[in-house]
Amino acid sequence: MNTEDGRGHSMREASRLPAMTTEPATANSRPLERDAQVAMSHHDVSPNDIALGVVIGRASEYFDFFVFGIASVLVFPKVFFPFADPLTGTLYSFAIFALAFITRPIGSILFMRIHARYGRGVKLTSALFLLGGSTAAVSFLPSYNSIGQVSIELLAFLRILQGLALGGAWDGLASLLALNAPRERRGWYAMIPQLGAPIGFMVSSALFSFFVVNLTTDDFLDWGWRFPFFCAFTINVVALFARLRLIATPEFTRLLDKGHLQPVGIVDLARHHALDVWIGAFVPLASFALFHLVTIFPIAWNTLHSDRSAGDFLMVQFSGAIICAGAVAASGLIADQIGRRNILIITAGLIAAFAFGSILAPLIFGENAIGQTIYVNIGFMLLGLSYGQTAGAVTSRLGTRYRYTGAALTSDLAWLFGAGFAPLVVLYLSNEYGLAVVGVYLLSGALATLLALSLDRSEMRQM
After folding, report:
1. 145: which residues sit within 8 A by CB, 6+ positions away?
2. What are the backbone angles phi and psi of residue 4, rounded to the nearest 5°?
3. Model pLDDT for residues 283-331, shown as the tens digit of each residue
4. Which of 72, 256, 364, 439 makes an SS bond possible with 355, Cβ 3.0 to 4.6 Å?
5. Region (Disordered): which ranges (predicted)?
6. Phi/psi of residue 172, each to 5°?
C-alpha cells in the first residue's frame, strides 16, 4: 500500500521534521521510556510504519479473541462442561466468553492510570504480556475430569484477564494514523486498523481447521486444541515489538503530543463528552451485532444442528474472511467518495435488509450447506463494508484532547452492547424459537445504528 504520494504529503512532512524537534518529546516521556527513545532516535516514523504497526497489533488482538471464541464452541463444552448436554455446555462457554467484554472497560481505565504514571511503553508492554500470557495459559488448563470445578473457575479467571488486557492494549496508533491522514483520504486510513479483524480470524480459523481435520476427536480434545492458544504468546510478542518499535521513538511521542493523544480522567471525559461517548457506542451496533453472527454463532449452530464437518465449515468462514478484508478496503474507497456517514447509513440499511431476509427465510441457514455458505459470504461482505468505517465513527465527535481515552472507552462500550452477549443470547433464543431470531437480533442492531446516526447529523470525520 503506497501512502507516500501527493495526497499523503502532509503525513510525510509530519514524519520528517528535523531531529531537533524530538527533544521536547523525550523530555516529556517517563524515565522508563527515555533510554529506549534515545536508542531509537535515528528511526523515522513514516505513515507506512504506523499503518503496519496498527495492522499487526490489531491482528494479534483479534487472533486471541477468535481463538477463545472458536474454542468456546469446539472445545470448552466437552473439556470443561462434560457434565452438561452439548447445547447447555456451549451456553456456559459463551457466558465465560462474555466476561472479557464486561471487564474490558475496566481494563481501559486501569491501564490509562498505568500510562499516566509510567508511560505508554510500560502500559502497552504489560497489557500485551498479560493478553498473550493469559491466552497461552489456557492451553495448560487441566480438564474438568481432572480437577473438577476449579478448571472452570480458572478458565473464567483467565478470560477476565484477557478482557482487562484488551482494554489496556489501546496504543493510540489508529487515532494517530487518522489525525495525520490527508482530508481526502480519511476513509481509507480509517479502515486500515479494521483489517486486523479478518486477518486474525483467518489465522485462528485456519489453525483450528488444520487440527480438526488432521487429528482424531480424542487427540484434538486432548492436546490439539491447545496449540492455537500456545501460539498466542509468540504472536503477541511479535506484535509488541512491532508496536514498541514505533512507540520508543521521539518522533512518535512528538506526534502524539502534537495531537494531544494523552490519557484524561474518566470524570473529565464524562463531564465534556458523556453524550458523545454514548452515541459513539451505538453508531457501530449494526456492524458489531453482525460480527459474531457470521463468525462465532454459525460455528455453534453448525456443530449442534448439522452433520457438516467443523473443519470444512471453518474453511468456508476462512474464505468469507478474505471477502471481508476486501470489503474493508472497499469501504475506505467508498467513504472517501460519499462520506463516512453515508456509508454507515447505507450499510446499516443493507444489514437490516439482510436481517429481514433471515427472518423471512430462516431455513437458508439450516442444514443446507449451500445456504450456509451463501449466508456466511454475504454476511462477511456486509461486515467488511460496515466495520471498515466504525473506527472513525466511534470517535468522530470527540475533540483531540479527549480522543485517546474516549476512543478506547467508546469502543469498549460498543463491543459490550453490540457483541459481548450476542452468541449467548442468539444461540439460546434461536434454539427455543428458531433461526428467525438471528434476523431479529441483527435488525435491532441496524435500527440502533440508524437511530444513533439520526442523533448525530454531523459528517463523520477524523479531526
Report:
1. 82
2. -95, 45
3. 889 999 898 889 999 999 989 988 888 999 999 999 999 999 999 999 9
4. 439
5. 1-30
6. 85, 0
Element (H, E) at 125: helix 120-138
Give the ranges where 339-368 is alpha helix by DSSP (H): 340-360
How many CB atoms lie under 10 A from the CB of residue 102? 15
DSSP 222: I
Q: Where are the domains of the chain?
A: 44-455
Q: What is the pLDDT of residues 47-68, one digit of tens each?
A: 667 777 788 888 988 999 899 9
With cell 486444541, the residue in question is 225
Pick the CATH number of 44-455 from 1.10.10.1590, 3.90.1150.10, 2.30.110.20, 1.20.1250.20: 1.20.1250.20
Distance in angstroms (rounded) separating the CA atoms of residues 325 and 279: 26
Set of cell numbers at residue 163: 478482557
Q: How far apart are CA 83 and CA 379, in angstroms?
A: 34
**pTM over the 0.90 mark:** no
Check if the beta carbon of residue 236 is closer than 8 Å to that of residue 129: yes
